[in-house]
Every structure is written in structure tokens, then in C-alpha cells.
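Continuing from the previous page of notes. For each protein in this section, the sequence appears first, followed by its C-alpha cells. Read the first protein now.
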Amino acid sequence: MDQQDGFGIVDATDAVDATGARGRVLAALAERWRTGSRPGSRPGGRTDGLRIALAVEGGGMRGIISGGMALALHEAGLTGVFDAVYGASAGALTGAWLLSSDPGQLAGWADAEYARAMVRPGNVLRGRPVVDLHNLVEHLYAHVARMDFDAILANPTTLHPIATHTGTGVATDLHPLLTDPARLRLALRASAALPLLAGPPVELDGSRYYDAGLAESIPFRTALAQGATHVLVLRSRGPVPAAVATAAAAAVAAGPSRGSRMVARTVLRRYPAPLRDSYLGRAERLLADEELLGRHDLAPPADGPAVLSVRPGPEAPKVGRLTRDPVLLRAAMDAGRAAMDELIVRLS
């Protein structure tokens, strides 16, 4: 649930047209889909030499857009083509549902009960976090709309929730810590523990973690660092006009916003400097991510890892990180599904 709103530059469908071909990521996905390839049971018992990762962006309730994309992947029977799913913030929650025994519950993103469980403005009066991750994960997911944590842990497609280590300010893959359902729930909460809005950091194995967005809003760099040869990125941000992108770049050049500096001086003042520096550098890193992803979409390299982004179209509704309007959320989920459905057509 990263606080810094970003901007998109390239629509994945335009990128495919621009290359004149389906592209390396689409070709790899199509081949695995065609052969019914699954982790641990690739055709003929062999490996194809690839490591295909899914990277899911969050953004609070804006994550419903990438959640709709993940739901479309499930409905098309494509989940098993991925070797690993990397999720940042709300994207980690989506990734967990995708690898559970009932991925259809991703549709619950648009349910009013889900939004009320996660975003609770009245908590301010009770001295509790507005974004109530404890209630969402430990109550709703554990007892109401039950998430099958054991199925996620046993899934041969591995889940990699990303969080920011409070001591180093570095993006950290929590996958090695997912040894039981309780620790999985802690990891999901840690990945989305936004400073100020979601309360204190989450402790896991003696370390404390804040939201992934402080260090890695779009979790494709960790996937690449861990050997991914192909990455499909599910974006919750759509493309914007060039003039807006230019203004955003100018704002980054001007330095951290006043609000970011205030949070660094107050909420994060007791933490080591690397965490504050990471927080203040979020906008600059996001700009660098956008530029790199744009280059991959428009002119993918001939060799080395290949990355392809799926973004909602320009007509997608604007959803904020604290949006609770079920009509707006449903429209946003449908926009995400439509963007992915358009890409899936190109695999056949």
C-alpha cells in the first residue's frame, strides 16, 4: 500500500503491437500454457530452463485492479505456468489468494465487507490504524472468507511477499520465513504495513518490517535478482498523458514532498537512517522503475531477462488507496480483468 502515487507510460497491449510480435514473455507463457506445463511436472519430466515469475503491484485498495488481472489469469487456467509469485503490499495479498485452494475469492476485493475490514476510518477515534491489517488477515482471512494458508505453503508455485526491513531500508523477500500459517499471515501483514496509516511495523523472526512500497513498489527487481528469466508484471497504475508524466518527473527532481519529509521526521524518526532514506527515495525509484519497464515494453532486449507489464486502460476508474465505494471497486476490478483478458487472447 505504498503512499506515493506514480504514473504509467506504456500500455502492455500497445507494447505488443510495437514489437510486431507477441514478445518473449508472451511466447514463454503460451508454450507452457499449450503444453499444460506445471511446476514440478513440466512435460516429459524435464525443465524448460526458464524461471517465469509473476510480479503483482499493490497500492492499497487500488490493488483491486491488479487483483482483477490475477483473477483473469486463474479463470484462464494460467496460474501454473508461473514458477513464483512476487507481491508488494496489497499485491502480496492478491498473490496469496491466487495460490490458495480457492482463487475465485479474489473477486472479494470488490465486496463491501472486504473494504470495511481493511479500511476503517473510525479507528482514528479509537487510536487504532485506519488500515486494519490485523482485522483483515487475522479475522476476515482466518475465520470469515477463509484463506487456505496450508494450500499456499504447499503450492509448487512459490509465494514471495516483499517487505521493507526497518533496520536496513532494503526490500526483503519473506519467502524463506513462510514455514507455517501463522508466519504466513505475519508476512502478509508485514508486506502491507504502511507507516502511519497501518500502525507499527510487523515483527517476524526478530526483525521488523514495513510496507514493501518503501523500498520496492513494483516487485519485479527482486524476481530478476533471484534468477527470473521472464516476468509478467500486473500493474495497478494505468498510463497517463505525457504532460502529467513530465510534471511528475519534475517533482521527483525537486526532491521529497513536504508530507514525506514530515513522516520521515515523525513516524520514522526512531528508526535507522537507511529506512528514512529509503522512504524519502520512493518517488525516485518508482520513476526509475517506470522508465525501465517502459523500455522492456517498447523494445525488449534480444537476450537476458524479459519483462512485460499489464496495465489498466486509460478508461479505468481512479481508485485511491482508501476507497470503499463498492460500485467503484467493482468497476476497477472489471478493468483489471479486461486488461488481462485482452492479453490472454494474444496467447492463443
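Done with the first. The second protein uses the same format. Note its length before scrolling.
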Amino acid sequence: MLIEVLKSKLHCVQITEANLNYIGSVTIDEDLLDAANMIAGEKVQIVNNNNGERFETYIIKGERGSGCICLNGAAARKCLVGDTVIIISYALMDFEEAKTFKPTVVFPKNNRVVK
């Protein structure tokens, strides 16, 4: 049996841009992607702490070191620049494997990886 579990999470990052006139997705700083074990094209859920919105989209790799969290396309209507969000990815895995799996959770400061 396969179950869906938390794989990675960027906890409490701030939206830096909202670009309605784009095809869609979320652009995320490559440093944050590396730290959270996320990749371009991966499906993510975004939870807005400011207004309770929850939606899904996919990742576009952003400029390394930029701190960029940019919502593109329709997602740009779900958050305002400055809103705090949680970006979550999930993985399907065997039930037994899931019992011992440890997700990657990153707590950035000012949209930068804290070392």
C-alpha cells in the first residue's frame, strides 16, 4: 500500500512578487529549493497564513540567493506581496517506509537559509 506523506516544507516564507501575467506556478530561490530538497516542476501546496488560502501549483527555479518567492498566473490572486506562506511537498511511499521517513523542514529567516 502506498500513502502520501510530507516530504519537504518551507515554513513561513514571505511572498516577494505576484505576477498575474504569467503562465502559472511559483518561483522559488534555488538556495531554498536545495535546502528543502525540492526541485523545479515539483507539485507543491501553498498555505497562506494571512488569509487561509490553500492551493496547489508547481515550482520554477528562481535566482540563487535572491530570496524570491513569486506567485505566477492565477496563484498571484491568492496572496499579497508580504504574506507569509508555508510551501509543502508530499511523496508517495510504501506504508512501512513512511513509518521511518524523516521529512525535510526548513525555517528560513527573511527568505534565506539559516545555517
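What the second structure shows: The mean pLDDT is 96. DSSP finds two helices and eight strands in the chain. We return to this in next week's lecture.
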